[in-house]
Amino acid sequence: MTGGYLKGRIRREDIITAAATVYGELGYHGSSLRAIAKRVGISHAGLLYHFPTKEALLAAVLERRDAEDSEREQLTVPPGLDVLRHFVALAGYNVRHPGIVDLYSRLAAEAVAPDHPAHEYFVRHYQAARAGVHESFAALAARGELRAGVEPGMAALTFIALMDGLQVQWLTMPGDVDLVGSLRSYLQNVLTVPF
Amino acid sequence: MTGGYLKGRIRREDIITAAATVYGELGYHGSSLRAIAKRVGISHAGLLYHFPTKEALLAAVLERRDAEDSEREQLTVPPGLDVLRHFVALAGYNVRHPGIVDLYSRLAAEAVAPDHPAHEYFVRHYQAARAGVHESFAALAARGELRAGVEPGMAALTFIALMDGLQVQWLTMPGDVDLVGSLRSYLQNVLTVPF
Known about the structure:
The structure is a homodimer.
Chain A: H1 3-30, H2 33-40, H3 44-50, H4 54-73, H5 81-95, H6 98-110, H7 119-142, H8 152-172, H9 179-190
Helix pairs in contact in A: 1-2, 1-4, 1-6, 2-3, 5-9, 6-8, 7-8, 8-9
InterPro entries (chains A, B): BetI_C, Homeodomain-like_sf, HTH-type_TetR-like_transc_reg, HTH_TetR, Tet_transcr_reg_TetR-rel_C_sf
Pfam families (chains A, B): TetR_C_6 (PF13977), TetR_N (PF00440)
GO molecular function (chains A, B): DNA-binding transcription factor activity; transcription cis-regulatory region binding
């Protein structure tokens, strides 16, 4: 790794950190690349060298969020109850970080269009989350720990969709929605063992 | 009702219809009040008389959508299985009208902020939907038709959040998500009678 390359990577990480902060303060729509460049102490042109569009920077913020989630929650544990517990822990972390949940929800809704810069990110994100939960429900079913009639693939799709839908309702009415409790309740209802 | 008042109401309805069409074609962010005024054949100032902001018009589009949903799906049926069937029928209608689902999802994510013009709309919308489903689950529980351990209020919150979360995933990957089948599957899993 050359010094120049390393310096470029550090600068790139600094920009992503500043972007996440500015998004949290002003929202995605309220922020601009100029404001983010100013925060990180570089020129607008300098920022454009790393991220040519607002959307490219947003995608980078989300990619890093996923990497951090995986690391913190160790989403690479073997399939089973522990994977589900990590998703619930992730929801608990999200409750303490509404800014990033807000950003995620908004972008998910905007990125449904195939030509949106973050579209591929969300396709991969949903597929990876569903696959992980599906595998865990299948492992639980093989041990007789999933209630009869519950299909692992359908339960996985439901669990991820529920997490996303609950987050929007929770952001809208924080006092009215128990995000973590609702997820736990859903899981307990499909399992035959204590969650 | 005076002739002038009636004329104003018709014009207002025409603007809402044109707005829904333009949103479906260009998305909410891609549309402008000028483009909508042009579509309905009135001046920009004429449109501003009825809807002073882009957000006010959007809220009116959503209010009318709710009124139409209630009428078409007769969401005023007595609490019980029929209310749940009407929500599933509504999801079936939504699958044939992705433009309005897209609009709803984007606005729901933007309107989490208390100062957003559509915030109160979404609070009322969630509360009404949850109350209707809660009442139905409670009626089913009283007849022994809800599985033991399923709490009606929690199941209602889950059902509405699931519907919202599934819609975003379905819009992102239409071939990968069975919106109606997933909702039916969730309901069948909490009921003791055939759905």
